[in-house]
């Protein structure tokens, strides 16, 4: 299944399952709520019975998850990206967090004020579908609901201010997510789908998602050793080589450029980038 | 005012305001909900009119905030603690995140399985009372609802596994919070209240909260440059010297020890520490 949260012409939102070019509307108002309610196949079957649907042209795709309670991100997780940072191959996943408010929608403008080093990081995002605590890798794999796309847009000038990356990683509404969640029965990272970032028409990152050092299920299992992951939580798995920081000379996003993030078999995110007036004030 | 979330004898929870040794019960089920609803003075006044109250002996104090949307923590923020880590005085706050599930209650057992280096970090915690975005320090100060106590219990063996500290900082139910939120009209960090950690009867950290390098309002203003803080969000301001990692020889919590965290004028947290069987499995 291909699942989404859609905005309807009346302004409301609904969880939806793709049906050809159209959407079957589930009863839940968001995919978060649908996931929390359990059996998505049953909800999709119910939607077929009610016959509630919307044409693709009539809806706007929102980030599929509006308010995950936990977003855990892994850095330094593609062999090619590790090489470009000049670091050694890590023995453990390098983890950091984002907030629900860090996410933004497919198609949404990414507006940044106060950074002059905005970089891109295409990522495969894992959507957790069940409670996971101290899981084996096999159990973690079984708890993965599906996969979507994220771009861990990073303010490098802020990220490098301290030992911890957080202040370059959690700017409101800067991490696009979506456009759909493809369930794990239809997408397997081991199949090596291509992952790419484009700036306007230029491909700046291109790799395959089977190049992950720590795979999706391995990450979920690792994280579950110290915290419980719950339905609707997100794990961002890291980015391949080709980020602006790793280029000579370095390159960052410019006002008006369009950031496209795509993974074959899932879809693509297209987000215009906007540098806004720095409204920062200091007392 | 001294505010709390209390568990009543019937098992329900309520926001509450201290009245002598007793609690006036607000209508909101949690302090999170009361803060989201706005004017706490009006809610406390309404509670005086309804006369709903509970004797201190009849309630259990929970962590005052059950589900903050954002918890932002600052490391390396006391001059004495910076010295014991051997690092230079930072130019910017060193920030990392916790999740709501990382928090636990006053009096709750802190149970850890899978770490042999569990350390303590007494911290002053700031409770945000209004939306804060790109604020001046003065505006940030005005948006602080009040203060409480946290202990950023840290699994040092995990924390040091990678460049990022997260996997040592976000273990479920390991950061005690509370027991009450003292509103900003009654508590000012500039007055230099004493902050201490005790293990059983031994004082292992003792400093004053005016020794913060980046003050409470300064931190809130800084964070608000890249994300919106909202009512009920938490900012943990960092810990003074005396952590186990900074000792020679190093010292960590042992099974059965009681961790007491206190700040004069707010109160104290007493949390028994328990090493549990490591239930980790690997596939």
Describe this structure in words.
- The first copy, chain A, has two domains: 2-62, no CATH class; 71-275, Fumarylacetoacetase-like, C-terminal domain (Fumarylacetoacetate hydrolase, domain 2, Alpha-Beta Complex).
- Chain A is of the alpha+beta class and 283 residues long.
- In chain A, strands 1, 2, 3, 4, 5, 6, 7, 8, 11, 12, 14 and 17 form a twelve-stranded mixed beta sheet that branches. Chain A has a five-stranded mixed beta sheet with strand order 9-19-18-15-16, with no helix packed on it. In chain A, strands 10-13 form a two-stranded antiparallel ribbon.
- Chain A is built from six helices and 19 strands.
- Chain A has helices at 31-37, 40-50, 79-85, 137-142, 156-159, 216-223; strands spanning 2-7, 13-19, 22-25, 53-55, 60-62, 71-75, 94-98, 103-104, 110-112, 118-119, 122-128, 144-151, 154-155, 175-183, 194-199, 202-208, 234-236, 258-263, 267-275.
- Helix content of chain A is 15%, strand content 34%.
- The mean pLDDT of chain A is 95.
């Amino acid at each position: 299944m291909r699942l989404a949260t859609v905005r309807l012409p009346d302004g409301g939102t609904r969880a939806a399952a793709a049906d050809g070019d159209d959407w079957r509307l589930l009863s839940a108002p968001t995919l978060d709520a649908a996931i929390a309610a359990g059996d998505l196949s049953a909800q999709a079957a119910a939607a077929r019975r009610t016959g509630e649907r919307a044409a693709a042209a009539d809806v706007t795709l929102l980030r599929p998850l509006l308010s995950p309670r936990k977003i855990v991100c892994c850095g330094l997780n593609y062999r090619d990206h590790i090489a470009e940072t000049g670091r050694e191959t890590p023995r453990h996943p390098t983890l950091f967090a984002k907030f629900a408010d860090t996410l933004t929608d497919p198609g949404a403008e990414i507006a940044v004020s106060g950074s002059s080093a905005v970089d891109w990081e295409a990522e495969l995002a894992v959507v957790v579908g069940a409670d996971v605590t101290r899981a084996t890798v096999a159990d973690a794999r079984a708890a993965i609901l599906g996969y979507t796309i994220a771009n861990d847009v990073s303010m490098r000038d802020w990220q490098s201010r301290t030992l911890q990356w957080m202040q370059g990683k959690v700017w409101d509404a800067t991490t696009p997510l979506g456009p759909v969640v493809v369930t794990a029965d239809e997408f397997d990272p081991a199949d090596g789908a291509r992952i790419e970032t484009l700036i306007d028409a230029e491909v700046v990152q291109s790799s395959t998602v089977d190049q992950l050092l720590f795979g999706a299920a391995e990450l979920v299992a690792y994280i579950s050793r110290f915290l419980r992951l719950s339905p609707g939580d997100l794990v961002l798995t890291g980015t391949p080589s080709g980020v602006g920081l790793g280029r000579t000379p370095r390159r960052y996003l410019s006002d008006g450029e369009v950031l496209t993030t795509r993974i074959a078999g899932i879809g693509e995110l297209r987000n215009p980038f906007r540098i806004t007036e720095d409204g920062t004030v200091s007392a």
